[in-house]
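Checklist before submission:
- one chain only
- standard amino acids only
- sequence pasted in full

Submission:
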Amino acid sequence: MTTSEENSYNKNNPYSSQLLVNRMLTEGSDKETRHFELSLEGSGLSYEPGDSLGVLPFNCSGVVDDLLAAVGFSGSEEVVIGETKIKLRDALLKNYACTVLSKIQIKKFNEIAQVDALAEMLKIENKDNLIDYMWGRELIDLFLEYPQPDLSVEDFTGLLRLMPPRLYSIASSLSAHSDEVHLTVAVVRYDTHGRKRKGVCSSYLAERVGETIPCYFHPNKNFKLPEDSDKPIIMVGPGTGIAPFRAFIEERKVTGASGKNWLFFGDRSQKTDYLYGDEWEEYKKNGVLNELDLAWSRDQSEKVYVQHKMLERSSELWDWLDNGALFYVCGDASRMAKDVDQALRTIAQEQGSMSEEDSASWVKALQKERRYLKDVY
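Returned file contents:
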């Protein structure tokens, strides 16, 4: 394969990768987290630890058929995607996002339906009511609640947006797994408003083995291992945030990096949610991981999270950072990343005798020096 062919793979022209492994990581847990391995054999594609894999999923056929029934179409109607005519059912399977419900969809829907209750919710002063209404609902719920018998195919597809790719942090090093790329994915499944729901891409992957998956690489220049392999690194990655750090440690081990490695991992229970636990324990035993701190939120009466473990080790953490360590965070942006950021400031205040204002400036300086790197979502 030529370089130009390799570089031509992107979200508009994805590579078809065979799904080699689909393995449950959380047996006995009420969370479903899976490990996937995809083949790159013969593709000429490459990636670096810290990069992401973009996956272009298909919608579940059952979800599509239920939506068609609710809207009143057979699926054999023709629609135009780009310059190509295809059957509506095929377009809903492969091209359109047809689950998540947005404000703009409700607005467009109500331009056709003229439902007073929706018009009221769409008023700016009722935005909280609209948010409550959208939670746990999908496009199908609008049609079930407010049937539109005379809707045209064009009006229906006008409510839809093209299927966006999903980006997943890569959980492997190419140096350790030639011709493969690994992912760590939390599979979303839940019931709301009398219907079973599932995450489009996570369930798409979870329900397949041996099939080809359309994908492409998405480089992340802002989340890389240090060029100087002597530098120590501190990694904070609870839940599926562990993914890039599995790649980091594999890379550091294979390349013989001399820098010290410290991992903070957390989840619900050590018995059922210790993602890649055997690997971490082996790395700790062999000295690849110099420090390993684990936080289990449900294994004791009081919930313990990664930021609590950071504070428990504040003196050592401060020493590592004082000696040039890079600090990485991956995972939930809404709460975890903020709590970890606050813990860093607290450590600076306690161990570095800084004021609150000075600790904030110190954290900003770490970021500016590219020693505090985040991959949060």
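Reviewer check: The radius of gyration is 24 Å.
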